[in-house]
Structures are given as structure tokens and as C-alpha cells.
TrEMBL record:
Pfam family for this entry, one: OsmC
The organism's place on the tree of life at top rank: Bacteria
Protein name, as recorded: Osmotically inducible protein OsmC
Record-linked SUPFAM superfamilies: OsmC-like
Transmembrane segments: none
Length: 134
């Protein structure tokens, strides 16, 4: 088992990661009858894309003996209606280092091939932008 999810009522859930016992809450967003006091489930999906990309880049960077610590991502999730679903995820990745073209290409390709990116439905537009330190 990976996790346990408990419905707490009032459109809120608590998820517990079994191996670490870390917990996260989710709330329905304000535009869908919720309080919006925590990430919504679809927020987590969008955030998972950026987190996965940075993690996979970190693995590749370690293999290359490159430090990408303090790189960060800004995530924007765009919903669509009928059916209500994620229509687009925009991720801007701000890299904390200067790199040559070869290193940039390797790390960017690694990010785009992350498991979350490959698991999202092809109808979800993934707009990915890398901003490298000058």
C-alpha cells in the first residue's frame, strides 16, 4: 500500500504516506464548493508534474556531477469545464546554475520524460519552460 486517504468531511481529505507517515490535506477549491484552504486534488496533480521533473533532473544531474540545488518551479493549473478537468499545466523551471548547451539539453530531456509527464492524459497540455541562470 502506498497511502491511505480519509475523508474528514466538509470536502477535505487527509492522506498519509504509509512508508514515512507524512500527511497532507486536500480541500475542494473555492470554485467547486470548497474552502480552498489546502491544495485541491487537481493542484496536487499539477504540482506532481513539477516535482517529478525536478526530481528526475536531480537524478540525472547527480550522474553528471552537476548541482541543481535551489532550482525551482512555478506551476499554473488551468481547469476546463464540461467535463471539469485539468486542461493545461504550465511549469516554469528556474535553474540555479549556468550550463552549456549539452547539459541543458540532457537535463531538459530528462525532465520532459519524467513518469508523471508520461502518465498524464495526452489531452492535458503541458507547457514547460526552462529559465537558465545567466
Amino acid at each position: 500500500m502506498t497511502s491511505e486517504v480519509i475523508y474528514l468531511g466538509d470536502l477535505r481529505t487527509k492522506s498519509t504516506h504509509i512508508a514515512s507517515q507524512s500527511e497532507i490535506l486536500s480541500d475542494a477549491p473555492i470554485d467547486n464548493n470548497g474552502k480552498g484552504e489546502a491544495f485541491s486534488p487537481t493542484d496536487y496533480v499539477a504540482n506532481a508534474l513539477a516535482s517529478c521533473m525536478l526530481t528526475i533532473m536531480g537524478i540525472k544531474a547527480r550522474e553528471m556531477n552537476v548541482d541543481i540545488s535551489q532550482s525551482r518551479a512555478e506551476v499554473t493549473k488551468i481547469m476546463q469545464s464540461e467535463p471539469r478537468r485539468i486542461g493545461e499545466i504550465e511549469v516554469k523551471i528556474f535553474m540555479s546554475l549556468q550550463a552549456d548547451i549539452k547539459t541543458k539539453t540532457i537535463l531538459e530531456n530528462a525532465a520532459k520524460a519524467c513518469p508523471v509527464a508520461k502518465s498524464l492524459h495526452p489531452d492535458i497540455v503541458q507547457k514547460i519552460e526552462f529559465i537558465w541562470k545567466n
